[in-house]
Amino acid sequence: MNARMSAAPISPVASSSPECSFPDRVATWAERSLMLEIETWPKPGLVSHVDTGSHTDMDADTFRRSAIALRPYFAALVAAGMRNASMTVLRKIGLRAERAMLSATGGVNTHRGAIFGVGLFCAAAGLREAGLVDARGTLGAVVRRRWGREILAGPRLPDSHGEMAGTRYGAGGARQEAAQGFPSVYAIGLPALRDAQSLAPGHDEAARVQACFTLIATVEDTNLLHRGGAEGLRFAQQAAQAFLDNGGVGDPAWEQCAGRIHQAFVRRRLSPGGSADLLAMSVFAMELERWPSDGSTVEVE
Ligand SMILES: CC(C)(COP(=O)(O)OP(=O)(O)OC[C@H]1O[C@@H](n2cnc3c(N)ncnc32)[C@H](O[C@H]2O[C@H](COP(=O)(O)OP(=O)(O)OP(=O)(O)O)[C@@H](O)[C@H]2O)[C@@H]1O)[C@@H](O)C(=O)NCCC(=O)NCCS
Ligand SMILES: Nc1ncnc2[nH]cnc12
Prior knowledge:
One of its GO terms (molecular function) is glycosyltransferase activity. The protein has 301 residues and is mainly α. The chain contains twelve helices and no strands. It has one domain. Helices cover 64% and strands 0% of the residues. The longest helix is centred in the C-terminal third of the chain and has 24 residues, at 222-245. It starts with 21 loop residues before the first helix and ends in a 13-residue tail after the last helix. The structure holds ligand LTSJ6FE6 and adenine. Residues 37-38, 46-47, 53, 55, 114, 271, 273, 276-277 line the site of adenine.
């Protein structure tokens, strides 16, 4: 594998500075996870530091401005989790974050799903740090146990792309993924990241590409259903699976192969935004789910 140097420097995680609070440390990593997702190419149909994929209204800088704007809201979600806040409270913070996102992007929806998913992971990190739940549980398990029922019962956005995909195709979307504890992160994205990084240490961008394709091959992404219907979702999943069956990033010609698939998505205007968010969440979990140093294990359900 030959990794590509990121085009833009990623701000160093401030976790080493002693005066940095726990919410700030987690928010720094949440912002960095969104930045690393953008600094990954090729991601079929998606925006990266190389090109804008299937989009004409947003580019890498749009996402970077959004990620920077969201950082204080991720910190607020961590702090809310430390206070054992309800989903109603988290939702209010999330809606303020969405307004900040739209202000930073000139009205473009870059990260609504990521505000929800990464935001829930931030709140779960706070709840776990406060000792209010079993420290051995994953962030996903904490989300499922503490807020899963409220997420499913909570208010819905009747005209959202996700709701329309749910009504038309029966897709569970982001809400179902969250209520189940983000199985796509723990059973698909995170293992793919770890396996690829162990095969080729230091080639982190290639590992993120591998994880992205692995997610697209499996996730019922409502963005793909919104833009391409059931046929578009099937095309995307089969194309991603073919890349993996051919060896993924372990194949010497992987970048050319992945680039061709990227262009095939662009020709069809397909954009797996949900898989992009789940990739960012998998990167986030890589840091937050470090195996405890005392040798005990993190409970992965
Ligand atoms: C709970 C919500 C996430 C609402 O979800 P819902 O499904 O009702 O509607 P959407 O607004 O469509 O948001 C879902 C977004 O989640 C991502 N996603 C899709 N499939 C999955 C999946 N299987 N698992 C996980 N996540 C998934 C995806 O987000 C990304 O794509 C975005 C771009 O979206 P869009 O603009 O529609 O796509 P385009 O193709 O660009 O549109 P056009 O150009 O064609 O117009 C972007 O959002 C990415 O993040 C889905 O979009 C949540 O919205 C909600 O209720 N929020 C309220 C606040 C809150 O509760 N916060 C909690 C804080 S802890
Ligand atoms: N890189 C990306 N491109 C398009 N939509 C996205 N949603 C989240 N990340 C994205």
